[in-house]
Amino acid sequence: MYTEPEQEQEQEMMKQRILGQDSQAKKQKAIAVSLNSFGVNYRKTIDKELIQIWIQSIQHLSLEQIARGTKRCLQEVEFFPSVAKFIELAKGRKESDRWVEPKPDQLLIEEKKERVPMPKEFKELFGNFLNKKSVK
How many domains are contained in the chain? Predict the structure, then answer.
């Protein structure tokens, strides 16, 4: 027999397990809906094996991330997305997110202050080219 606190603790643990299973079921349904919308949009047949692969691959994402990934894939990706591309879009990362604005006093790579002289040989060849009256 359980004592009062042990019984309450057991009930709380049972409630958490049920909620966790409910959350997993919602995620699985959301992933299946996402894949079916991809199937319609990209004209690809979606079978149960593909759904299982995606469920195993992206079950760590939240429902909001799955929704965001689905929306962004449908809007931004031209062909059926890979799992990696879906995760990238679901988490909101983009190549442009990696850019960091330079500080005002920071010299950029392109801002080299010393002049580079033009080679004499090139100057002569370029001068001869400009002085030609006809091009063969």
Answer: 1
Rounded to 5 degrees, what are φ and ψ at 52? -65, -40
Rounded distance between C-alpha atoms, residue 122 and residue 78, angstroms: 47
Helices (H), 1-136: 4-42, 48-58, 63-76, 83-90, 120-131
Domain assignment present for 111? no
Condensed to tens digits (0 to 9), the pLDDT of residues 23-76 reads 888 899 999 999 999 999 999 999 999 999 999 999 999 999 999 999 999 999
| Contact (Cβ atoms closer than 8 angstroms) between residue 4 and residue 23 | no
Q: Which domain holds residue 49?
A: 4-95
Query: What is the sign, positive or negative, of the torsion defined by CA atoms of 16, 20, 26, 27?
Result: positive
**pTM (2 d.p.):** 0.55
